[in-house]
Amino acid sequence: MPPKKKRPVLHAATVLALLAGSAYLTVELRKDEEAKAPKVQAVTDTPGGLHSSTGQESSGKQKWERLKNPERSVLRTDGGKVLATFTDGARTATLTGPSRTFTEPANTKSRVVTNDWVRLMPEIWREGAEKEKWFKDWYKEFSGSEEDDIFAMAFQYVEGAPVKKDDEGIAYAGDANFGPLNPDGSAGNDLRLEQSDFFDYLGIPYTFRNGTTLQPEKVRARSMDCSGFIRTVFGYRARYPLMATDGAGDGLPRTANGMARGKVGTDVIELKGVGAADRPKSIDVVQPGDLVFFKLDARTKQRLDHVGIFLGHDADGHKIFVSSREEVNGPTIGDKGGTSRLDGNGYYASTLRSAKRL
Question: 26, 119, 199, 302: which one has the fewest Cβ atoms less than 10 Å from its Cβ?
């Protein structure tokens, strides 16, 4: 073999030998890789023993169990570690995979460290679906996969996120705004206009499954309000069916109120009402990837008016969610206008009213 082709092979062997013999070099290489990763998302660790290269547990048996409230199927290792959770009536699945740390340095010191990967299954889960071919094929493909999931997609719109373009040159990801400035608004009082949807962000017309075509408004380019953010991530990116409005049809409705009160998904915290007395007594049932709904503005009367995605716990043990907000002008886990926590008695914690698993 010519010398040109030998050197890379020798170099790889040398690197492997050094990695095996030097913990210091391993740490330094990891630091180097993290430095190259986007600031809004970095893979910082891989838990040992959970996954082999095929995406399955490397040793031991797996077992299924059924749990209630909500009705769901949980896949565990023989030792009891959770590998995945699938909820009846929902397409959202939570899989255990490589640990990631999500941060948003521009707006908060919070760090969400998680090994949960949230994905949409091609069909709605029901008891016994683990025996069906569609599920076996899907799980084989995505168990252990590091392909972009709901969380990775969500963080592709926070402040500082780099622009990503598809083959047609359409910028489908990158730092998003909440909406254009409201000529009649002010700081803390409708500063920015709502009603910016995913097609406004993209700047392209979009035809929905019922045949309705909606046109983007130029003033709303690169913008998405709170429900528009959910529709961008779950709908346009992850391919959950979308409704044009909150009206007739099937799919994810347009507004936070429509999503909370609609038929899609499974309620994990049932909506009792919108008053202060209707705040859930417990939120322990909420799972990463769930939609969380809030009542922020008395002017919207009985309508819920804000929605976000629950991420899990941050490094300080607080329950954190991500949503698009006018105070930060876009998707955030930040503190401006209210800390993005579901626990405690802060602004968002006290206005939480329900949660749903799509």
Answer: 302
DSSP state of 341: B
How far apart, in whole angstroms, are the C-alpha atoms of residue 17 and residue 237? Answer: 41
Identity of the residue numbered 20:
A
Condensed to tens digits (0 to 9), the pLDDT of residues 137-196 reads: 999 999 999 999 999 999 999 999 999 999 999 999 999 999 998 888 777 778 789 999
Q: Which helix (H) or strand (E) covers residue 229, if one does?
A: helix 226-230
Question: What contacts 283, CB < 8 A, 6 or more positions away?
Answer: 269, 319, 342, 343, 352, 355
Distance (Å, whole) CA 28 – CA 26: 5
- The answer to whether residue 25 scores a pLDDT higher than 70 is no
Alpha carbon distance 239, 209 (integer Å): 12
Q: Is the pLDDT of residue 23 over 50?
A: no
Q: What are phi and psi of 113, to 5 degrees?
A: -100, 120
> What distance lies between CA 175 and its chain's CA centroid?
16
Strand, helix or coil for residue 321: strand
Q: CA 261, CA 274: separation in Å to the nearest integer? A: 12
Is the CB of residue 180 less than 8 Å from the CB of residue 219? yes
Q: What is the pTM of this model?
A: 0.84
For residue 21, CA distances in Å to 16, 27, 155 come to 9, 12, 36
Cα separation, 315 vs 102, in Å, equals: 10
Name the CA dihedral angle for 40, 284, 318, 88, rounded to a multiple of 10 degrees: 0
Residue that has been written with the tokens 């809030």 in this structure: 294
In terms of residues, how long is the chain?
A: 358
E-assigned strands of the chain? 41-45, 62-67, 72-77, 82-87, 92-103, 111-120, 164-165, 171-173, 206-207, 213-214, 266-269, 291-294, 306-313, 319-325, 330-332, 352-357
**CA 40 – CA 286 distance, rounded (Å):** 24
Side chain identity, residue 126: R
